[in-house]
């Protein structure tokens, strides 16, 4: 028996919702999994170079965790993965691998675990629930992980909400982008983020797209991470004047994300502004319109 899982990419934080907001994007990874008499792992596509194809592979290890938890003795696995999701760019590629591995292994044992249980395992593995929550449930996810449990509520994205991503040609590890953040923040910045994140969730759940431009502001992570992505601060400051509802660093970056009203007449202008601003810094970026 072979199972095939299709998992969406995701963008985390959406600006102020550091480690707590995530949104699935229509860019996908496919994972095939079957119990076999010996383990073999096939990664399809150039961008997979360097990813292990032995038993240290993330998908293999996560799948074995599911079998362990279910009391099934370690089966050998045949795994294939094809992914459209660029790696290490802030689009949740590792979360999609984790979610795909969990869902695939769970399907092989007759779905013994609920989606909620898989969400607990995934959040524990990632240590933040934003990307895995979005990849697992789809849509927009508001979530916490407190080192013990994860809870979330899904919001159906407004049909007029479109996403433009500018994916720089360079990779940026989440570890590096988390390492640059301070251990302490001021009460003022905490309140700033709390109020903006709450307003953003309210705007997204009520379809008040006009409020996004006020809400999508952050003082917890983006000011620190801006030094890692040339051009980022200018994009944060100016994109609204070129038709974005709001703009943010996608996850830990380096991808930049703009939320756009599908009815906007400034889409081409916005795309040119994002691409041009990064190009002025010597950064080639792939531009994708997503939902
Ligand atoms: N919320 C996480 C971060 C997402 O910003 O570091 C990265 O995977």
From TrEMBL:
Domain (GHMP kinase N-terminal) ranges: 57-139
Record's subcellular location: Cytoplasm
GO molecular function: ATP binding; homoserine kinase activity
GO BP, sorted A to Z: threonine biosynthetic process
Residues the record lists as binding ATP: 86-96
Keywords: Amino-acid biosynthesis, ATP-binding, Cytoplasm, Kinase, Nucleotide-binding, Threonine biosynthesis, Transferase
InterPro entries for this protein: GHMP_kinase_C_dom, GHMP_kinase_C_sf, GHMP_kinase_N_dom, GHMP_knse_ATP-bd_CS, Homoserine_kinase, Ribosomal_Su5_D2-typ_SF, Ribsml_uS5_D2-typ_fold_subgr
Biological or metabolic pathway of the protein: Amino-acid biosynthesis; L-threonine biosynthesis; L-threonine from L-aspartate: step 4/5
UniProt GO cellular component terms: cytoplasm
Biological role: Catalyzes the ATP-dependent phosphorylation of L-homoserine to L-homoserine phosphate.
UniProt xrefs under NCBIfam families: PRK01212.1-4 (NF002288), thrB (TIGR00191)
Name of the molecule in the record: Homoserine kinase
């Amino acid at each position: 028996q072979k199972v095939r899982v299709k998992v969406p990419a995701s963008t985390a934080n959406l600006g102020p919702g550091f480690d707590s907001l995530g949104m699935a994007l229509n860019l996908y990874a496919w994972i095939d999994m079957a119990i076999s008499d010996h383990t073999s792992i096939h990664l399809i596509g150039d961008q997979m170079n360097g990813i292990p194809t032995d038993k240290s592979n993330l998908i293999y290890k996560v799948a074995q965790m599911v079998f362990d938890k279910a009391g099934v003795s370690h089966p050998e696995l045949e795994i294939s993965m094809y992914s459209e999701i660029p790696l290490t760019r802030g689009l949740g590629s590792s979360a999609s691998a984790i979610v795909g591995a969990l869902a695939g292994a769970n399907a092989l044992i007759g779905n013994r675990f609920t989606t909620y249980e898989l969400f607990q395992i995934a959040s524990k593995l990632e240590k933040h629930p934003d990307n895995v929550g979005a990849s697992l449930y789809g849509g927009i996810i508001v979530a916490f992980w407190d080192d013990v449990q994860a809870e979330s509520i899904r919001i159906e994205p407004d049909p007029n909400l479109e996403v433009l991503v500018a994916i720089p040609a360079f990779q940026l590890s989440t570890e590096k982008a988390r390492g640059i953040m301070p251990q302490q923040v001021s009460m003022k910045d905490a309140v700033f983020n709390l109020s903006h994140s709450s307003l953003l969730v309210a705007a997204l759940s009520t379809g008040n797209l006009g409020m996004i431009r006020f809400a999508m502001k952050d003082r917890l992570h983006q000011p620190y991470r801006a030094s890692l992505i040339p051009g980022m601060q200018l994009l944060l400051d100016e994109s609204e004047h070129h038709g974005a509802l709001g703009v943010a660093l996608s996850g830990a970056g380096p991808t930049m994300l703009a939320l756009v009203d599908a009815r906007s007449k400034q889409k081409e202008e916005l795309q040119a502004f994002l691409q041009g601003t990064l190009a002025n810094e010597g950064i080639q970026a792939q531009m994708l319109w997503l939902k």
